[in-house]
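In this supplementary section we document a worked example of the pipeline. Step one takes a protein sequence of length 223 as its only input; no multiple sequence alignment statistics are reported here. Step two produces a three-dimensional model, which step three serialises into C-alpha cells for compact storage. The input and output of this example are shown verbatim.
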Amino acid sequence: MEILKVQNVKKYYGKKENLVKAVEGISFQVEKGSFVAVAGQSGSGKSTLLNLIGGLDIPTEGKIFVQGQDISKLKRKEQTVFRRRNIGFIFQNYSLMPELSVYDNVALPATMDFRRRVDHTYIEEILKTLGIWEKRKKMPNELSGGQQQRVAIARALVNRPALILADEPTGNLDSRTAIDVMGLLKRSSKDFDQTIIMVTHNEEMAQSCDAILYIKDGKLMNS
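The serialised model returned by step three reads:
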C-alpha cells in the first residue's frame, strides 16, 4: 500500500541571480511500513524535502500525496488538522514541552485533537515498548538526551500517523545512544506498522534502513 507519493517536486527560493534551487524535480513513492533514509551532505536539500512532505512548506512546483491526499491543495487550517492526524515528527533537538511531564508530552498531540479520544492504554504500550514507562511522571530536564528522544518518538507514534518524519533524530546523541535510538525506531516501525522517513548525514545509520534516497544539490541521485 502506497503511503507517500512525491511527483516532480521543486522548491525555489529568491529570484534571478539570487535564485536557489533547494529541491529540483524529485519524484519517488514509499510503501506502508517502510523505513526510508534520506541521505546527503549538509545543504543538499534533505531537510527542505522533509518539510515539504510534512506540509511545513509549500512546493514551488509538483505534488505530494500522503494517503492519496494532495497536501498542497489543502487550506492552511485543513493542512494543520491533516498534519496533526496523519504525520508524526521527530526532531534533532527533541522539541519537548519543558513544563509538561513525559506522559503529558506524549499525550499532547492527541489532547490537541478534540475529535480524538486519548488512548491511555496505547500510550502505556508505547512507553513500555520504548523503555520509559517508569519515567512517565518525570519532567524533560530530568532525563538524558537518549531518554528525551525516546519521549519524542513516543509522541510521534501516539496518533498512529500514516507517516513519521525524523530529521537527524540521532544528531545530538553519542554513538552508543544513537545506535539504541536507531534500533528503537526500527522496532517502532515493525511493532506499530509505522512508515518512517529519516533525514541523516550518517551513512552507517542510513545503511540500516530498508531503502536510501541520496540527495545532491536538490536532486535525487541513483544509489
